[in-house]
Amino acid sequence: MVAVQHNDLKVLVFSFASAVEFTFNGFNSSSSELLLYGGATIDSGALSLNRNSTFSIGRALYHAKVPTRSSPNTTDLLNFSTSFTFSITPFKDRLPGHGFVFAFVPSVGLQGASSSQHLGLFNQTNNGEPNNHVFGVEFDVFQNEEFGDINDNHVGVDVNSLTSIVSRRAGYCVTLANANHEKKPQRALIEVPFDLSRVFLDEMHVGFTASTGQLLESHKIIDWSFNSLVTIA
Question: Which of 39, 96, 170, 227 has a beta carbon 3.0–4.6 Å from 56's, enabling a disulfide?
Answer without folding.
Answer: 39
